[in-house]
C-alpha cells in the first residue's frame, strides 16, 4: 500500500514546478539591482522594492526550496542552482531591462501575472493541503505585486505617451520572451541536481512542459489570466480597449502556457 507521502514523492508536476520557481524566485535580487538604477528618482517605489517585493520573492524561493528538501531530500538543489546561475547571470545587467520605465513596468506586470496564474493552478491541483495553502499564499502575493507594478505602469505610460499598439506589442513580446529566457532556462537546469535515489525518471524540457500543461490545464484560470494580461492594454485608450477585446477572443482559443 502506498502512503500519501510516497504518492506525493512521485508527483513530478510539483517537483519540476517547485524547482523552476525556486531558481527564478531566489535569483530576484539580481533583478532588483537593475531596477534600483532605473527607478533611482522614485524613492517611494524603491522603498517598496526593498521592503516588500524583494523579501517576498526571496521568501517564495526559500519556501520552494524547503518543499523540495522536505519531500525530495536526495535532490541536489545547490548543484542545480549553481549551474542555472552561471548561465542566468549572463542575462542580468542593464540590458536586462526594457528601454523605458513604462515598458519595464509592463514586463513586470506580465511576469507577475504568469507567476500568479501558475501558483493558482498549482494550488488547485495540489492534493496536499499544506502545498495548496502555500501556493495559494504565493498567488496572493503575486497579485499584490501585479497591482503595484500596474499602478506604476499607468503613471509612466501617461508621461511616455505609449499607445495601444506599442503596449500590445510589448505585452506579447514579453510573454514569449519570459518563457524562453526565464522558465526555459530554469527548466534546463533542474536535472543537474537529479539523483538516482529519486522515485521517478528525469524529464527533459519538452517532457516536463507537456506533463505540467496536461496536469494543470483543468486548473488554469484562463479567464482571470486573460483579464489580468490585457488590463494594461485596456488602460491605454478606447482603441486599446477595442484591441483588448479582439485579442481576448483570440486568446480564448490559444492554450495557455503555464511553465
Ligand atoms: Fe514570487
Ligand atoms: Fe511577484
Automatic annotation (TrEMBL):
InterPro entries associated with the record: Ferritin-like_SF (IPR009078), RNR-like (IPR012348)
Q: Name one GO molecular function term.
A: oxidoreductase activity
- Spell out the protein name for this chain: Uncharacterized protein
What is the native source organism of this protein? Usitatibacter rugosus
Amino acid at each position: 500500500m502506498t502512503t500519501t507521502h510516497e504518492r506525493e514523492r512521485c508527483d513530478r508536476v510539483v517537483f519540476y514546478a517547485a524547482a523552476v520557481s525556486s531558481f527564478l524566485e531566489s535569483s530576484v535580487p539580481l533583478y532588483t539591482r537593475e531596477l534600483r538604477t532605473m527607478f533611482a528618482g522614485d524613492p517611494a517605489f524603491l522603498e517598496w522594492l526593498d521592503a516588500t517585493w524583494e523579501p517576498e520573492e526571496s521568501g517564495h524561493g526559500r519556501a520552494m526550496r524547503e518543499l523540495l528538501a522536505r519531500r525530495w531530500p536526495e535532490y541536489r538543489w545547490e548543484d542545480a542552482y549553481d549551474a542555472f546561475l552561471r548561465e542566468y547571470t549572463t542575462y542580468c545587467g542593464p540590458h536586462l531591462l526594457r528601454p523605458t520605465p513604462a515598458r519595464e513596468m509592463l514586463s513586470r506586470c506580465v511576469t507577475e501575472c504568469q507567476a500568479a496564474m501558475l501558483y493558482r493552478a498549482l494550488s488547485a491541483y495540489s492534493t496536499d493541503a499544506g502545498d495548496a495553502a502555500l501556493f495559494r499564499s504565493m498567488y496572493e502575493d503575486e497579485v499584490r505585486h501585479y497591482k503595484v507594478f500596474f499602478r506604476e505602469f499607468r503613471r509612466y505610460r501617461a508621461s511616455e505617451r505609449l499607445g495601444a499598439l506599442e503596449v500590445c506589442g510589448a505585452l506579447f513580446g514579453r510573454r514569449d520572451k519570459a518563457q524562453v529566457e526565464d522558465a526555459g532556462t530554469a527548466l534546463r537546469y533542474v536535472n543537474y541536481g537529479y539523483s538516482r535515489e529519486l522515485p521517478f525518471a528525469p524529464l527533459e524540457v519538452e517532457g516536463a512542459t507537456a506533463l505540467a500543461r496536461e496536469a494543470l490545464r483543468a486548473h488554469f484560470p484562463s479567464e482571470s489570466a486573460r483579464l489580468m494580461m490585457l488590463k494594461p492594454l485596456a488602460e491605454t485608450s478606447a482603441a486599446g480597449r477595442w484591441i483588448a477585446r479582439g485579442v481576448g477572443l483570440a486568446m480564448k482559443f490559444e492554450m495557455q502556457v503555464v511553465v
